[in-house]
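Homework help board

Subject: predicted structure for assignment chain

Our instructor gave us this sequence and asked us to write out the predicted structure in C-alpha cell form, then describe one feature. I got the C-alpha cells but I'm not sure how to describe them. Can anyone check?
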Amino acid sequence: MVDEIVSPNNWIIKAKGYLTTEDKLILPLKCILIPMHQASTSIEKYNKEKDLPQTMDLVGKMQLIQNIGLNVRAADKAYFNEWSKGLIQINKDNITSLKLFGGCINCLSKSLSGNSLREFVSLRLKELSDLNNAKIIHAMDSGKYINADDVHIVFDYYEEFLKLELLGFPGLKSLPISKCRECKKKLTITSI
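My C-alpha cell output:
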C-alpha cells in the first residue's frame, strides 16, 4: 500500500494526481511527465542552493533557470499540441463541426491549434509562455545571461501551467473561430 505520492517539488500533487482507494496512481497526461519532472527537479535544486553561500556559481544558476524554462515550455507545447491534435481528429470528419468553421479544414485547424487553445484557456499562460521564450530561452540562445529580474518568469510559468486540468483536457463550450489565409483573402475580395 502506498501512503503518499512523492515527486520533485511535489508537482504531481499540484497537478492533481492522486491515489484511488484501490492504491491506483492517477497521473497527469503522459506527454508532460518527463518535462515536468525535469523542471521540478531543477526547481528543487535551485531552491536548495540559492540561499547557500558559494555553492552554485552564476552559470550553474542560469543553467537551472534555463532548464526550468525549456522543460515547462516543452510540457506546455506537448499538452496543447496533443489536445489540438485530438480535437482536430474528432472534428475534421464531422460535417456539423466542420460547418462551424465555414466548411474549411484549415480554419478548423487554425482555430483548434495549440496556440489558439492556450490563448483561449489562459491568457496569463500565453503571456508567460511568450515572456519565457523572449527573456529566458532566447537570451541564452543569443549568448547573453538571463537578467536577474526575469528569473521569476520561469517559476510563474511553472505555477500557471500547473493550474491547468493536467489529468485530461477541459471541455470547451465555445471557442473563437479563426480564419485561415485563404478564407481571409476571400472575405477581403468579396467585401471590395
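Reply (TA_rk): Your C-alpha cells look well-formed. For the description, you could write something like this. DSSP finds nine helices and two strands in the chain. That's the kind of observation they're looking for.
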